[in-house]
Design a protein that fits this description.
This protein has 448 residues and is an alpha/beta fold. It is 30% helix and 25% strand.
Length: 448
């Protein structure tokens, strides 16, 4: 790399960061992609990995492999923790908890969002979210282990709690998880146990609204309600999950009334998202406004007011009409790269315009929803359209081929070939490198 060329630093290797770097691969700039996992994750298919449909390799790809052919792009493993806008540098944390600094001329913040527990961070111990590969593997372990433990228990409340699965949140991820778990119970595991009948497993979905998938057209949402009920998912609307424990949850009606208690050993949380801590730090340092979730207010070209060299894209971009979906991140990444190229050419930047490419949600084998403009598709046709839509966006030819093969096989068979999970050995010390707890939410002051 040439240090005489403009230096572009991209924080995050998700859809926004990936598409931005790709568009700059032939530009006269030096690009650094800084990511805490050094890999790109196709997050919309995480639940397929969590429930054994797809493997890790089919929904993720190393960034070094992705950019190996591009000499002006380098990737670094580290988590951004501090911004110095005067020196134009970012401090990053290595997995061994030492730090290093990366300088930039242009900064693209594409760090994404993380799971929000709405101020109840203690829920995370018993209710994993669905944002990372670790989350997917954690859920896979909890899901299949629950059936294994139930097999060893006599009939009664304890066995029932292990065969009860609660999902908090009725958005696409919650709907997809609930449908998949029910399918695991009724089809995948139906004939594999002797003491229990997996089909008797209860799947409970809780949401504060009056229907699932509220961002979809009402007719599609109601079809999703009906499909979930036909699968055996128990829908509970107008409620909030207000406590999560080792052996159960508490649910509180929004309009008042007595709390309800549900015995369950497996709780999955998809009820909200919030900005990562670095994004909040960026907003504070730059004096930028944020919304309640921590999204940073941006101008027409997706830059922060007073800092034309700092772009904020994807889920973190706080502007009306920008949804937290992969397509917005992709388009934002392409837009930021276009602005950088226009700057190099001495041409004015164009404002960012998001183009809605539609929404899709998978419910179960043969059942999905697709909404593109006036087009509304559900059932089997929606399922086929869902598959084509997601495969079209997968990164890397090898990923597309392997996922197409798995998906086509799933049309003929409902089996899940990636159900393996590890529980670990009690006598082995944890040898993994890990980031420190710096990015965890700060504890509330005592007495609150």
């Amino acid at each position: 790399m040439s240090h005489s060329r403009p230096r572009v630093l991209i924080i995050g290797g998700g859809f926004g960061g990936l598409f931005c770097a790709r568009r700059l691969s032939r530009a006269d700039v030096d690009v650094t992609v800084l990511d805490r996992a050094a890999g790109h994750l196709f997050q919309p298919l995480l639940y397929q990995c969590a429930t054994g449909k797809l493997s890790i390799g089919q929904i993720s790809r190393p960034l070094r492999e992705e950019f190996a052919r591009h000499r002006n792009i380098r990737t670094l493993l580290g988590e951004a923790i501090e911004l110095d806008p005067v020196a134009r540098s970012v401090t990053a944390l290595r997995p061994d908890e030492t730090t290093f600094t990366v300088d930039y001329d242009v900064l693209v913040v594409a760090a994404g969002m993380r799971q929000s527990y709405l101020g109840n961070e203690q829920f995370a111990e018993w209710a994993p979210g669905m944002k990372t590969l670790d989350d997917a593997l954690d859920i896979r372990q909890r899901l299949f282990t629950a059936f294994e433990i139930a097999e060893t228990l006599p009939p009664g409340p304890e066995r029932t709690s292990w065969l009860t699965f609660a999902v908090a949140g009725g958005g696409p991820t919650g709907v997809e998880l609930a449908g998949q778990i029910r399918e695991v119970a009724t089809k995948t595991l139906a004939k594999e146990f002797h003491s229990i009948d997996p089909e008797e497993a209860r799947v409970l979905l809780f949401d504060g609204g009056d229907r699932v998938l509220k961002t979809f057209a009402p007719a599609l949402s109601l079809k999703a309600n009906d499909t979930l009920r036909e699968l055996g998912v128990e829908l509970h609307f107008g409620v909030h999950v207000t406590d999560v424990r080792r052996d159960g949850i508490t649910v509180t009606p929004k309009q008042g009334g007595p709390d309800q208690q549900f015995g369950t050993r497996t709780v999955l949380w998809t009820a909200g998202v919030e900005a990562v801590r670095f994004a909040r730090h960026v907003a504070e340092v730059l004096g930028a406004e944020t919304d309640r979730a921590g999204r940073i207010t941006v101008g027409p070209d997706l830059t922060v007011a007073g800092h034309p060299e700092i772009f904020v894209i994807g889920d973190l971009a706080g502007r009306e009409g920008l949804p937290g979906v992969a397509e917005n991140a992709m388009q934002g990444g392409l837009h930021a790269a276009s602005c950088i190229r226009r700057d190099l050419a001495g041409r004015p930047r164009r404002p960012y315009r998001y183009r809605d490419l539609g929404s899709a949600a998978y419910i179960s084998h043969g059942h999905a929803l697709l909404q593109v403009g006036p087009l509304r598709v559900s059932g089997y046709a929606g399922w086929v359209a869902w598959g084509l839509l997601h495969i079209a966006f997968l990164t890397g030819v090898s990923n597309r081929i392997s996922t197409v093969a798995t998906w086509l096989a799933s049309i003929a068979r409902t089996g899940r070939y990636h159900r393996a999970f590890m529980l670990g050995a009690g006598d082995r010390h944890d040898q993994r490198y890990t980031y420190s707890s710096w990015d965890l939410p700060e504890p509330a002051p005592e007495g609150n």
